[in-house]
Every structure is written in structure tokens, then in C-alpha cells.
Amino acid sequence: MKLRTGLLTGVACIAALAGALQVLGYGYLWPAVRHTYLDGHRTAHIDDARNFAQARIAASTQPQPWAERSPLTAVSPDTLAYLQAQRSAAFVVVHHGRIVSEQYFAPYDAHSRTNGFSMAKTVTTMLAGAMVADGLLPSFDAPLARWVPEYARDPWGQRATLAQLSAMTSGHAWDENYYQPLNATTELYFGDHAAQTVLRHGFEREPGTAFEYSSASSQLLGLALSRALQQARPGLSLSDYLSQRLWQPLGMADDASWSLDRPREQGGLELTYCCIHTSARNMARIGQLLLQRGQWQGQALLPAAFVDRITAPGPKVPYYGHGLWVDAEHAPPFYLLQGHLGQYVIVVPSADLVVVRLGQARNTTLTRHPKIYDEVYRYLDEGLRMTR
After folding, report:
1. What is the C-alpha to C-alpha distance for residues 322 and 310, in angstroms, rounded to an integer?
2. Within 13 Å, how many C-alpha atoms sit on residue 302's CB side?
3. In whole angstroms, what is the distance from residue 309 CA to residue 49 CA?
4. Number of domains observed in the structure of the chain
5. In sequence order, what are the beta bridge partners of 355?
6. Domain range for residue 19?
7. Global pTM?
């Protein structure tokens, strides 16, 4: 009887706490705790698709299988040990458009969908380029306020452009933090109204004057793209457009999904700063498309000039382009898609090389570059070794 009473009291206290958090505007804290700490994690994790409403990104009905080297090259013992220590899910190397090495770590395999986190920022930027090519946007440099009039009276916000959002130079006010529970980034991830969360924040500086990495900037870009799509093609979502414009033409063999802030029937919006759940092979194909400057089997899926622009060092810092991290001074130069916990798609144009690593943890040591982690160079060197 005492045990039952204690349990009921505990449940009542939790319910009261959840209710109080909701009233105080911190309703996102309960799902944040439930889906991280109570699930055995300190932060969001790669297998969290089940915790959020998902929009389907449909695969091709005519999948294009990867060409593969036979036999595949084994990962070196040192790199294999490092991958295992960092709780990796996948390591895939593509050279000259062929898979030359492929390693998965149980329980993951070639069809496993995991969260790519901020690699979605790159995909969102790529969709902007596709929409310009399709005439759905007038320009990558068009003003944000044309589709997000909430900033039409903000003296800086009215001058911010879509390209500046992608380059992280828009001047939008935001504090990027992945581990503190009481902050806007946590609310954006675990809350149920992404647009409302980012629109509460104004602009703190003249657009184009400084770089500041911000998930809110990518979410604002996604909001503008979503509204532009609705104006031109009512009923077409960003997930649908991604499927039609890139996923299916690329011959993706597996569906993917994109996390929504709430169910679609309640007005759910794609979390465009993060949260495309897909396989290592699919992400390798995104990298291969960029490597080929937007060209795929004789078709221009993206304008080559647009790919050249987004993969080059940005207007304010040498290490970030538009939705991509860049090291143009390295020999050989490379750029990469990067996501929380060490999701990487590394593209080396001069070596015709794409390296993908997905997993649960990363080492954040910085000695080789002020902003790009040492382990990126480890994975890059491993891929280059396989090309020799």
C-alpha cells in the first residue's frame, strides 16, 4: 500500500512539474529530458527519429546502385579502433564515383537511418539553389522579408538575404548551445513551434558584417523556402520537394525522413537546421552531387555556378561557405557537411573523393585547424590512403 501511494505521489509530482513548465513557457523541457537523459543520453542522439513527427522523403522508383570496387579496401587498424572508440555507425569512402570501402558497426547497416543533424543545413541550402533554378525564388540573394514579413519593420532584418542566412552572416540574434536545458536551441529542437521560436528573436547587427554560427538562421531560411513553395505550388512541402528535386533523380534506394516540429496535420514544419534521417550511402550521394558541381548523369540538378559559390570560403570567414565548412588551405583542399556528434560528409574535389562518417560521439580536439576538428583530418587521410 505504501509503495502504491509513493508511486502515485511521484506520478502526481511529475505531472504537476510538467504542467508548471508548460505554464511558464518551458514546456519543451519535459520532452528534452525524456528523450535525452531518461533515454540514456546527454544530448540529442542519432536514433531519435521516433521521438518526433516525421515527413517522408521518398526514394526513387528506379534506384541507381552504387558501383563498387572489388574487393573493397579495409579500414586501417588504427582508424578502425578510433571509429569503434567514437561509437561509429558507418564509414564509407567513395572514389571516382565508386564505393571503395564500407564499414558498419552493429546494430547499424547500409540501410540504417540515422540523424544527420546539421548536415540538413547543407541540404536546405541546396534546395534554395534548386528553387532559384526552378524559378520558385528570384535569387539566392533575395531579401528574407519578402517571405518572412515579420521582419519587414526590423531595420536590419528587412535587409537580410537568404544567402546571408545560409552563410551565417545575417546578423540574426541567437545563442547556439546544445547542452544547456534552458536555452533557445533546446527549445527549437524539442519544442513544437519552430517558426515561433526563431521569430521571437530579432537582428542584432547589420547583415553581412560578421559570421555567427546559428541554427536559427537555417530555420529562418527553411521557413522562407517553405512559404515560397506554398505560394508557387500550394500543398508541396520541403520534404516533397527534396524527394522530387534531389532524392529521386539521384536514384536514392532508401526512403529518408525529415523531423517536423509537430505533426503535419497540425501545421508541422521541417526542422531545416537539422534532422534528416537517412543512410550513409544516401549522404555519400549528396556529397557526390556536390563533387560533380550539381551534375548527375547528364542532368543539372543544381547550377554549377551555385555549387561553386556555396562550396567556396564565405564572405566573412575562410572556414565556412554556405551551409558547408571549408579548408581551402589544406593540401588537398576540401569542404564538408557537418552535424552534431560527428556526422561528416567530406568532399575532396581534386582527389575525386567523398568520405562519410556517421556515429554517436566525436572528439572535439582542435590542433590542426581553429574550427575543424582533428578527427575530420584523420578520416580524410584514411580516405586518401585508399585512393593511392
Report:
1. 5
2. 30
3. 32
4. 2
5. 93, 346
6. 2-35
7. 0.92
